[in-house]
Amino acid sequence: MKSARKKIIIVDDNVSYLSVVRILLKPYYEVYPTPSASKLFRILEKFIPDLVLLDVNMPDMSGFEVISKLKENPRYKDIPVIFLTAKDDEVSAANGLELGAADYVTKPFYGPLLLKRISNILLIERQKRELHTSNLTITDLREKLENQES
Predict the structure, then answer these.
(1) What is the pLDDT, as a whole number, of residue 2?
(2) How many Å apart are CA 46 and CA 68, to the nearest integer?
(3) Can you give the residue ranges of every domain in the chain?
(4) Which one of 26, 113, 115, 142 is most buried, counting C-beta atoms within 10 A?
C-alpha cells in the first residue's frame, strides 16, 4: 500500500517565492501555499501538516512570532518548521533554531538541496514517531510481564 503524500504548508508574503516553492515541491508533496500567518492558523484548524516552511519577514506577524505561537500550543508544537527566508544573518538563524525550528534555509535557495533538507527532516520525524511507538510497546510488554510475575 502506498503511503499518503506528506502535507507541507508554505508561508511567505512574497507571491513569487510561494509559486517557485510550490512548483518545486508539488511533484513530491501536497503543498498548501499561504501568504500570511493568519491564513496559516486558519489552515491549521482544518488539518495538521507534516511540515511548515516559514518566512521570517512578513507584515502581519513575523516568522519568529509564528513559531513561538506554534510551539506554545500543544496541538501544533510537534510540527517541524523550516525557516525559508532572505534574512541571512547568523543571529537570526541562531534565534530561529533556538525557537525550535528544525532548519534555517536562506533565499535564494538551491532547489535540490531544499528538497533534501525537507526529506531529511521528514525522515527524522518519522523515526521519532516509530521510536515513540516502540517505547510504548516495550513499556506495555514490561508491565504485562511484571503483572504475570506478581
Answers:
(1) 55
(2) 20
(3) 7-149
(4) 115
pLDDT tens-digit series, residues 77-92 = 999 999 999 998 999 9
Going across the sheet that includes 51-54, the strands are: 30-34, 7-11, 51-54, 81-85, 103-106
Which stretches of the chain score pLDDT less than 70? 1-3, 150
- In whole angstroms, how far apart are CA 109 and each of 15, 19, 76, 112, 135? 16, 14, 26, 9, 38
Handedness of CA 145, 126, 8, 77 (dihedral sign): positive
The pLDDT value given to residue 140: 83
CATH number, domain 7-149, options 3.40.50.2300, 3.90.1170.50, 3.50.50.60, 1.10.10.10: 3.40.50.2300
End-to-end CA distance of the chain: 42
Helix and strand element counts for the chain (H, E): 5, 5
Q: Is the peptide bond before 35 cis (omega within 30 degrees of 0)?
A: no
Task: Provide the angle, in degrees to the nearest 10, between the axes of the packed helices 63-72 and 37-44.
Answer: 20
- Cβ neighbour number for residue 79 with a 10 Å cutoff: 20
